[in-house]
């Protein structure tokens, strides 16, 4: 399976033929893009998977997200953090991906493939710990699937990425009231799904 590190860097995203005077500015922009890519590619990959993009399509979604970032970088006005700006782009790319897949196959499911935990959680040298991480990742993925798209997005940003309500508003375009409402509902749905899973598997709280 491909990993974020194998995705094309900025020099694969296309170059323009420019005059000598524009070369320093273009070089600076490419350098800035490379920095952003290196800093945020793991976040974009992780978020795409947590938003339900199957592993077989994750490379395409991440690549498309950074193509848009590259194209719009000169328009970024720093009214929000780079991370929230990139996530807002990722959300649109994921939305377009889902719409395209559902148009091609009405029975397509955003979770058609099980999550590969190694794309979400760093592996461990301890085999027992690695197994525990893989099982936890699979459980979280199943629980996230119990949420609708908006609740899932807010839950991922608040609970897994630990963004503030203000950052979530910037990333999603929701109002503060809507963010808190979705988050409360997502937490309730998540806990109910967890309780059902515990009952189904005979688990007990410690």
Explain what this protein looks like in three dimensions.
This protein has 206 residues and is an all-alpha fold. It has two domains: 17-108, Rna Polymerase Sigma Factor, Chain: A; 126-206, Winged helix-like DNA-binding domain superfamily/Winged helix DNA-binding domain (Arc Repressor Mutant, subunit A, Orthogonal Bundle). The protein is 65% helix and 0% strand. The chain contains seven helices and no strands. It has helices at residues 23-50, 55-72, 82-104, 127-144, 149-160, 165-172, 176-201. Helix 1 crosses helix 3 (82-104) and helix 2 (55-72) crosses helix 3.
Number of domains: 2
Task: Specify the structural class.
Answer: mainly alpha
Task: Let me know the CATH homologous superfamily of the largest domain.
Answer: RNA polymerase sigma factor, region 2, helix turn helix motif
CATH architecture of the largest domain: Orthogonal Bundle
**Oligomerization category of the chains in this entry:** single chain
Helical percent range? 55-70%
Q: What general form does the structure show? A: globular
Q: Strand-residue fraction? A: under 5%
Number of strands: 0
The main pleated sheet reads as:
none
Please write the string of helix (H) and strand (E) elements: HHHHHHH
Distance between the termini: 36 Å
Q: Give the low-pLDDT segments.
A: 5-12, 14-18, 110-124
At the fold tier of CATH, the topology name of the largest domain is: Rna Polymerase Sigma Factor, Chain: A
Q: Supply Rg.
A: 19 Å
How confident is the prediction overall: mean pLDDT? 77
Total count of helical runs of at least 4 residues: 7
The CATH class name of the largest domain reads: Mainly Alpha
């Amino acid at each position: 399976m491909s990993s974020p590190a194998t995705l094309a860097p900025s020099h694969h995203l296309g170059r323009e033929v420019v005059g000598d005077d524009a070369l320093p500015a273009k070089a600076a922009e490419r350098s800035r893009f490379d920095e952003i890519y290196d800093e945020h590619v793991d976040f974009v990959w992780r978020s795409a998977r947590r938003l339900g993009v199957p592993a077989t399509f994750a490379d395409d979604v991440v690549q498309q997200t950074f193509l848009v970032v590259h194209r719009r970088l000169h328009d970024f006005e720093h009214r929000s953090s780079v991370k929230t700006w990139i996530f807002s782009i990722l959300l649109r790319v994921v939305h377009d991906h889902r719409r395209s897949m559902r148009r091609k196959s009405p029975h397509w499911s955003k979770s058609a493939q099980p999550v590969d935990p190694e794309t979400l959680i760093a592996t461990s040298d301890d085999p027992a710990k690695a197994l525990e991480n893989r099982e936890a990742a699979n459980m979280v993925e199943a629980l996230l699937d119990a949420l609708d798209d908006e609740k899932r997005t807010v839950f991922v940003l608040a609970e897994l990425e630990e963004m503030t309500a203000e950052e979530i508003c910037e990333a999603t375009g929701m109002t503060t009231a809507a963010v808190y409402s979705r988050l409360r509902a997502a937490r309730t749905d998540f806990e109910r799904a967890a309780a059902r899973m515990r009952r189904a598997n005979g688990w007990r709280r410690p």
